[in-house]
Amino acid sequence: MSITIDQLAGLAPRPGKGPTARFTITPAAEPERAEVDGVLAGVAQVDITPPPGMPKAGFSKNAHDGIGFRNRLRARVLHLRSGTGSVAWVQLDLLAGSSLLQHLIAHQIADRTDIGLSGIILGATHTHAGPGHFDASDFYNRFAANRPGFDPAWTAWLAERISAAIVEAHDARRPARVATGRTAVWGTTRNRSLAPFVQNTDVEDRRLDSERRFGAVNPWLHLVRVDSLAGQPLAAWAVFSIHGTGVNHHNEEYHADVWAYLTDELHRRTGAVAAAVEGTHADVAPALRPGRAGFFEAERIGRAIGVEAALLHARLGDRLATEIAVASALREVDLDAPDGGERDGIRLPRPALGASQVAGAKENLTPVIHRLPPFRAGHPKPTGGRGPHGPKWILGSQPLQSRLLPLEGFPRVLSFQAWRIGELFTVGFPFEITVAAGRRIAEATASAGAPGEVVVASVTNGYCGYCTTSEEYALQYYEGGHNLHGPRTQEWLGAQGAALARDLADAVHPRSVLPERRFALHVHRYLADPAGAAAMAGRRRVDGAPRYVDAAGEDPGYWEQRWTDGSPGTLAWHEPMARVEVEQDGTWSTFVDDQRTSIGVVHRGKGRYAARWYDPWLGGDRRFRFVITTPGGDLVGAPFWCGPAGA
């Protein structure tokens, strides 16, 4: 019997360390679907911003617990139904998807929708400023964030929120028109590991200069445009390749990094629910100006990409069609099965961490260590190495690592998926895939008969480290060190993509999944308990007048309103919390709220909070005020003048 979301939540102790959570999931049955004419589409989005206190995943031990949000984390859903195909493409403002979430959601929506497990696609922005602790493996629950553990309460809450959004999109679906296309976006990204990239035998230009760094990227932005038959914009869904690291690991707030500004700009210009997920981004970083990591740069880059996406959206207006193919295939590969997941004669070896992974990626290097061999990038074994991991210096040696990191803690069941929307054929893998590796995987998939243009998406339905080409792997930069499964990983994934293409040639929703998934995950609850500390009776108040804090370095200036309230768990962080109102003719009305990207809220400790307006009005003197909305009611701040004189 499969565990339910409620049962999973019940495994969570009060905040703190708990026992190992052991549970089983069996796949939800695939629903019967009658054929429909035309295309039906529905969209929805929900807020998945947690309370402060959750460790942030992506920068590992260099990260920090979240203290609040700089901009909100969201889950967005595009549901499409055509013929007998029914898919829900979910974008998460998180490090990666999760096959555990995928199964939980499939059970939760089974009686409410015609979307089966094979049609649930969990993509991600790969922001490094959202919580982890929902992965299907102990290894990444332990090492992806600054503190370890699987949080059942947070995982159950995520599954519940995402499921509700899928049901909402399903119930709201209506006849629609769909178009797909692509555009090249240059100047916003750079290759952060150029030396390995130019080792690829299919790369002709082997220069190691800044010009090449900006050209050795995946520039293609792929977009799905969905409109209602009446012409109302419904969805603008993009795939683009850029790391979610425009803001460095020193920041302590939750945020969606460059993706927040990309989707905000795309929504502002189109009116559609806008979403974007990762393409082949493993060696692609934001093109930050030197020494300028921070929100200024993240916004500059994100909005530039959003503009290009919006221009493509407009061009696709002439290509909207009422008849398109919709289909999805799902495969689960068990690396512990007798055949070890072998495909085309390739069997992945036992996973191993490389020393170069500890040094960090180029834009966020680990101090001191990144200069020392064997951790230093580009310092493989001098003889090329022996065994399945070749030139990789295995951290601590293979025998020691095997004792300290049990095999069962690593991802051992991998979820691979392909989905077709018209002429767009996307294959998604739980790896961070480099530009060159992605091209080869796409070629292998296309050679198996995949219709349309093949697009490769990273960090889909889980996380399992990196995938490089064998040539890139040989140089042992960060990407090669974090390629857990050796130099033939890319070939193996190409074979898996080809298998998915063949699956979809024979059926609309083929799936090959395990009859049962067993989990044993070490529990540590971080999600704040709403029934913990009571609200501070008699102390809930606005603390003084708003104040302006000047910009400092890469930190923008902002107006700030402080207040005192209950503990973080007693506040609804996934609901609107703060807005700025403007006075006009004696009447106050909302000027901006925290549903956009310019207002954040942080916890300052001991029930003290601050709402911050990061993009204040500078067009002339006007009178504003903060309004704080919490379960205890609204708190209204003192009016303040904002403009050239006010700021």
Indicate the mean pLDDT. 94
Number of domains: 2
Helicity range: 10-25%
Q: Count all strands and give the number.
A: 32
pLDDT < 50 runs, ≥5 residues: none
Oligomer: single chain
What class, by secondary structure content? alpha+beta
Give, in spatial order, the strands making up the sheet with the most strands.
Answer: 7-6-5-2-9-11-12-13
> Approximately what portion of the residues adopt beta-strand conformation?
25-35%
How does the overall form come out from the CA principal axes? globular
Q: How does the SSE layout of this entry go?
A:
Layout: H1 5-10, E1 16-25, E2 36-47, E3 56-57, E4 68-69, E5 74-83, E6 85-92, H2 99-109, E7 120-124, E8 130-131, H3 138-143, H4 152-171, E9 174-184, E10 189-191, H5 194-197, H6 210-215, E11 220-228, E12 233-240, H7 258-270, E13 273-278, E14 284-286, H8 295-315, E15 326-334, H9 355-358, H10 398-404, E16 413-421, E17 424-428, E18 432-433, H11 435-447, E19 453-457, E20 466-467, H12 470-475, H13 478-481, H14 489-506, E21 511-512, E22 517-525, E23 541-542, E24 547-549, E25 558-564, E26 578-584, E27 587-593, E28 599-605, E29 608-613, E30 622-630, E31 633-636, E32 640-642
Parallel strand pairs: 6-7, 12-13, 15-21, 17-19, 18-20
Antiparallel strand pairs: 1-22, 2-5, 2-9, 3-8, 4-28, 5-6, 9-11, 10-14, 11-12, 15-16, 16-17, 23-25, 24-25, 25-29, 26-27, 26-30, 28-29, 30-31, 30-32
Helix pairs in contact: 2-4, 7-8, 11-14
Structure summary:
The protein is of the alpha+beta class and 647 residues long. It contains 14 helices and 32 strands. The mean pLDDT is 94.
